[in-house]
Design brief:
Strand content: over 45%
Helix content: 10-25%
Structural class: alpha+beta
Number of helices: 5
Number of strands: 13
Distance between the termini: 62 Å
CATH topology: outer membrane lipoprotein receptor (LolB), chain A
Length: 259
């Protein structure tokens, strides 16, 4: 009787183990396609191009944009977010936003202003659930597992699907191009903390180009609940530049979180 129960248990565990082994294999292939160790050791990135925002799927804003991203050791940045950003808008970057683990500020000619808490939270959640951040910063996180979900055709591409599941049961589904092994889409779901309404976030990645031995998408397209919210078209991308601390410095005024 005990042998029969053990056999049944082993049979039930085998499929779960198989999909995790396949999922990890697909993730490893994706990291290799993105540049392997060169991708995993990128210290910073600068993207210059055009950014578009949308409301009800109609363009509500567009700007020349230059985005600076640098990865910070967790012991310096805090365990929750090991990335800092500066988003500059306009030809002379007269308006820019600084985003850090400690908070986020927009800076205009009037001076710095801290963003609302819900804006900071949404930015944090979008970063930690971004597949590139997951691969660069969370790949060896305790409790993180990868489950293969099979093959599908999306946007006329054959893709392998993998669920990335963390220890808190958050799930990001990444769609990996079968031929190039590069991520072409990711999906994740979040709920509004006040209304508890479900929000489906979809991001598409395209126009990959080689950047100093790595691959990076020069076009990103984001949707929420089926409506376009954001697009970025990069004209140039560079990595591992000599970026000074001042670019990401916390503004000296109005740094208290809003209640």
């Amino acid at each position: 009787m005990k042998l029969a129960l053990l056999a049944l248990l082993a049979a039930s565990l085998a499929p779960a183990q198989d999909i995790q082994v396949r999922g990890k294999q697909l993730i490893d292939e994706m990291v290799k396609a993105l540049g392997g160790d060169k991708f995993l050791n990128v210290q910073n990135r600068v993207e210059a191009g055009r950014a578009y925002s949308f409301y009800n799927s109609q363009i509500s804003g567009l700007s020349v944009a230059k985005f600076y991203t640098r990865y910070v050791p967790e012991e310096k940045a805090g365990a929750k977010l090991a990335q800092q950003e500066r988003q500059g808008f306009g030809k002379d970057e007269f308006y820019f936003v600084v985003l850090r683990e400690e908070g986020a500020w927009e800076i205009t000619y009037r001076g710095p202003k801290m963003l609302e808490k819900d804006q900071i939270r949404r930015h944090h959640d979008s970063v930690v659930n971004n597949i590139f951040y997951i691969l660069r910063n969370r790949l060896h996180e305790p409790g993180l597992i990868f489950e293969a979900r099979g093959t599908e055709v999306i946007d006329n591409m054959t893709v392998d699907m993998v669920d990335v599941i963390d220890s808190e049961n958050h799930v990001v589904t990444v769609y990996i191009h079968q031929a190039t092994k590069l991520p072409v889409r990711q999906d994740w779901v979040w709920r509004d903390p006040v209304t508890r309404e479900r929000n489906d976030e979809v991001t598409r990645f395209s126009r990959y180009r080689e950047v100093a031995g790595t691959q990076w998408p020069f076009q990103m397209h984001r949707e929420r609940n089926g409506e376009k919210t954001y697009e970025m078209f990069a004209d140039s991308v560079t990595i591992n530049q000599n970026l000074n601390d001042e670019l990401f410095a916390i503004p000296k005024a109005d740094t208290r979180p809003k209640k």
